[in-house]
Amino acid sequence: MDVAKDCMYHAYESGINFFDNAEVYAAGRSEEVMGKIISEAAWNRDSFLVSSKVFWGGDGPNQLGLSRKRVVEACHAALKRLRVDYLDFYFCHRPDKNTPMEETVWAMHNLIQQGKVLYWGTSEWSAQEVQEAMMVARENHLIGPSMEQPQYNMFVRNKVEVEFNKLFRDYGYGSTIWSPLASGILTGKYNNGVPEGSRLTMDDLTWLREKVLTEQNIHKVIALQKIADDLTTSVANLAMAWCLKNEHVSTVITGSTKLSQLQENLKSMDVVEKIDTSVMEAIEAVLDNKPEMPQY
């Protein structure tokens, strides 16, 4: 609790005004902790934004998905845990194949009409699913989604740079990206193996370790370190600044387990202006994974 409080206070005082959360994080405990900190801080409500995400609410038969009952009850529960009167952003954490799109869009629209949510969006939806939601909203004169929360980093690029390109271009769709450091790979801490006690030692993350902790990716991180050294920064801050450099990235989510980590991450904002054309070309040469844009 003390670490979370120190991080939130420092973030707020440093100019960060958006705090992201979800019902599934620590089974709701994460929102309870954040809500207690927000309540005690007594910040003006117009000075910060808070989000929640709905999909995984528990193991019960009505605690999964995006049905009207699920969305409404989850919103009420999140408001209570976060101790706020409304959510600035409410994300559908995953698409729900078992609920008609019309039902989910109507549920979100009604929450906005009731003043419990200001904007709603999606997380890890396909561009096609987002467009379907927009179409339903348009046909029924409802408020549609306006932002996506996708994974985006130097190793995961296609969704943000290609698949969602038309949504960004034609609709001004926003993006709040997660995992800018590729689960820690882009910090360089795995360059010489997996440190004891690190996240990727966890048994339930074996799949992630096998997917991202590859020899090829480690070689790329080592090469990126040389570019970071030339800019007098860390490879982690270079990676986050690279994400911020993308004009379609509205927000970069950074999760910190201690204050010093947050303080270091905030330095990435000073690196953005250092990434000029020549630096970007050097980065692309190392990554060698730039997605190919379709001709349309």
Q: What is the terminal separation in angstroms?
A: 50 Å
Q: Would you tell me the overall average pLDDT?
A: 94
Residues in helices, as a percent range: 40-55%
Give the beta-strand count: 7
| Major sheet: arrangement of strands | 1-2-3-4
CATH class call of the domain at 1-149: Alpha Beta
What's the SSE pattern? HEHEHEHEHEHHEHHHEHH
Profile the largest sheet: 4 strands, parallel
Provide the CATH architecture of the domain at 1-149: Alpha-Beta Barrel
Number of helices: 12
Low-confidence stretches: none
Structure report:
There is one protein chain. This protein is an alpha/beta fold. It has a domain at 1-149: TIM Barrel (Alpha-Beta Barrel). Helices cover 45% and strands 9% of the residues. The protein is built from twelve helices and seven strands. A four-stranded parallel beta sheet has the order 1-2-3-4. Strand 1, helix 2 (29-41) and strand 2 form a beta-alpha-beta unit. Helix 2 packs across helix 3 (68-82). The longest helix is centred in the last third of the chain and has 16 residues, at 215-230. It is globular. The mean pLDDT is 94.
